[in-house]
Amino acid sequence: MPPTGRPAHELLAELRGLRAGDAPTRGGWTFAYVYDSGLPQLDELATAAYGVFATVNGLDPTTFPSVARLENDVVRAVSAVLGAPGAQGSFTSGGTESILLAVKTARDHARAVRGVTRPRLVLPSTAHPAFHKAAHYLGLETVVVPVDPVTFRAVAPAVAEAIDERTALVVASAPSYAHGVLDPVADIAAAAAQRGVLCHVDACIGGWFLPFLARAGRPVEPFGLSVPGVTSVSVDLHKYGYADKGASVVLYRDADLRRHQYFAHAGWPGYPVVNPTVQGTKSGGLLAQAWAVLHHLGTDGYTALARRVALAADELLPGLRATDGVRVLGEPAGSLVAFTVTGTDGAPDLSLVLHVADEMRERGWYLQPQLSYEDLPPNLHLTLTPATGDRVGALLADLAASVSAARASEPVTVDPALADLAAALDPDTLAPEEVAGILAFAGLGGEPGLPSRMAPVLALLDALPPRLKERMLTEFIGSLFSI
User: Fold this and answer.
1) Which of 381, 368, 384 lies closest to 335 in space, CA to CA?
2) Which of 111, 149, 305, 352 has the fewest CB within 10 Å, making it most exposed?
3) How many Å apart are CA 185 and CA 218, to the nearest integer?
């Protein structure tokens, strides 16, 4: 802290300077993490709406009744779009909180209604890590079911077989983040219902996109609460709702089920506490900006934006399939695409995938590398938004050049002896200096930050066992925030 305050213009200039080193969030260059409508006035509206409610405390809607009014409006809109007008839900800070609340609700429901004391969570291997995070926080055992290695969709009979008397919740994705494919929601939900088990659909990506894609005339499989057996859905409005981070909604089939989400405490001398969500005190600004963006765009606006994404996919997918050595994974349901790069033998090649990611980054594009998992290949992930529509041609041209450059590059390899050594290490007993040594070998030691090319680092991570990989990532991220 400075001894005396600094001028506002100086502080804002420094903040803008810091942003200059980040990936661009507008303009269609970054294919992960950001959702750009391509409508510049939308950012101005969201910022202004946030400002109106920035000082409002969303903790107590009896003191700030505007909070209840806005949340009811937003939840009602989401319920209507998903074709479930009787659903009940809550506004949350993002998909992770929505998922955590759905898991908490299922755990408490299983405990209260079925007497389950050691609950399990059944989920496909492609389900978002937020479910594993929720299970870790809330004490559920995860039962992971492999997906089809060709379609990358969950296998409904295998999911059904994994359900037992301890299962509190079954998960399906609409679509999965990693590959952008839609799980067989109806079959999974039916299997759960047959055993009296709740079924959550993670529609954080597709919940506010697929309905408008259907309105734009594209075929979309049913996935929401209108599907028999689906009992809850998570929908992010800061993705294809184009609100600012963080804005999400978790919906339940009725108020009786939602009641298990709430936390109340009156056993202390202070004010009575009732928290519908994980957060207590929270700014009303995030809710206000989401409400404003939804009402500004309306049904027709969202349909037009979904159509623009669909047209981008219509151009991108044939272009990818026509690019030598590129293979699209599965059948994308709409806006997410994953592709791998193959070697001369036609098999996915990790080195080429990672080199292509680096080459594309040097050309100004951010494509998200995804490492191999069991029998699922390494790949590059793209999130299409309306802002990417007029950039597909340039993207494909740079991708072809990047693939050629990757093939001419020295392959990245991991010393087999190092891989064998890593496989024998126990992540839980590693000393700090041992962790630091491995990070340094991976190119993540010394000064904070990332190397200019990530291929060697990611190749080493790909070779590590999952638990050791998690320990390395934890230590590295921790180093970024060390003082």
Assistant:
1) 384
2) 149
3) 18
φ and ψ at residue 321, rounded to 5 degrees: -70, -20
Total Cβ atoms within 10 A of residue 477: 9
More confident residue, 72 or 31: 72
Q: Which residues pair with 92 in a beta bridge?
A: 248
**What is the average per-residue pLDDT within 2-18?**
91
pLDDT above 60 (res 448): no
Question: Comparing C-alpha atoms, which of 69, 39, 88, 42 is closest to residue 292?
Answer: 42
CB-count burial class (<10 Å; 0-12, 13-18, 19+) for 85 = exposed
Distance separating alpha carbons of residues 156 and 162, to the nearest angstrom: 10
Mean residue pLDDT across the chain: 92
According to DSSP, residue 231 is labeled -
> Sign of dihedral through CA atoms 409, 423, 473, 379?
positive
Q: How far is CA 94 from CA 297, 331, 361, in A?
A: 20, 27, 28
Give the span between the Cα atoms of 461 and 57, in whole angstroms.
43
Higher pLDDT, 30 or 3: 3
What tokens does 197 get?
Answer: 């088990």
**For the chain, what are the domain ranges?**
48-294, 416-480
DSSP class of residue 147 equals B
| Range 77-83 average pLDDT | 94
Which of 6-20, 123-137, 213-227 has the weakest average pLDDT?
A: 6-20
Whole-number pLDDT of residue 483:
66
Point out which residues pair with 328 in neighbouring strands.
339
Provide φ and ψ at 443, rounded to 5°: 90, 15
CATH class of 48-294: alpha beta
Maximum CA extent, the chain: 71
Structure tokens given for 291: 């409400």
Contact 131, 142 (CB under 8 A): yes
Q: How far apart are CA 408 and CA 412, in angstroms?
A: 12
Cβ neighbours around 53 below 10 Å, total = 22
Q: Sign of torsion, CA 302 33 102 284?
A: negative
Helix axes 455-463, 416-424, angle to 10 degrees: 50
For the entire predicted model, the pTM comes to 0.92
Minimal CA–CA distance to 339: which of 324, 318, 353, 354? 353
CA pseudo-torsion sign 274, 255, 111, 235: negative
